[in-house]
Amino acid sequence: MLSKVEVDGLSKSSFLLGLLSAFDNRFQASADKFFKEITWKQYFAVISIDLFKEAPTINELSDFMGCSHQNVKQILLKLQVKGFIKLFPDKSDKRKLRIQLTKIGKDFLLNNEEKANAIVQKIFKGIDDEHIKTTIQTLMYMEKNIVHLTEGV
Predict the structure, then answer these.
(1) Is the pLDDT of residue 1 over 60?
(2) pLDDT category, 112, cuts 50, 70, 90?
(3) Predicted local distance difference test score (pLDDT) of residue 4
(4) pTM for this one?
(5) Crossing angle of helices 69-81/58-65, nearest 10°?
(6) C-alpha to C-alpha distance for 108 and 52, rounded to whole angstroms
């Protein structure tokens, strides 16, 4: 595909951002075929909920996933209909909704752990740990800089 576009005039940074965006789109399209029951974004939400030490609020989950509150709410409503999660009011602030995995959600994670790990292994095939470490460091710097992206706009 790169042979069909002119990228010589792009800075390395701009090219990297384009690659990340294109990768995300291609990965999303492929990953949505992995599970019959849920999409990859729904799976990412389930994994993310499971990582929290206590049931997260929608805002906490949104921040963690890097998505808007509205997008996460839509994902959660679909997961709720499928029985993967339950939403319940926070004990101290009834305006906040907390999210908890149900038995169905927990079982899904357990039953698909090997499949998910195999997917990750395929994506990183042939990439050594040093390259992965450098990529993580670069993305972490980029993540910190996103905070300043809208300053002065």
Answers:
(1) no
(2) very high
(3) 66
(4) 0.84
(5) 110
(6) 17
For residue 106, give both structure tokens: 């927990």
87 - beta bridge partners?
99
Q: Is 60 helix (H, G, I), strand (E, B) or coil?
A: helix
Q: Do residues 70 and 76 make contact, with C-beta atoms less than 8 angstroms apart?
A: no
Maximum pairwise Cα distance, the chain:
57
Residues in the chain: 153
> Both tokens of residue 62?
């949104």
* Coil/strand/helix, residue 111: helix
Two tokens, residue 90: 């926070």
Q: What CA–CA distance (Å, rounded) separates 120 from 101?
A: 23
Tokens (6 digits) for 75:
């994902």
Place of tokens 């752990």: 113
Tens of pLDDT, residue by residue over 45-61, are 999 999 999 999 999 99
Which residue has 């101290």 as its token pair?
Answer: 92
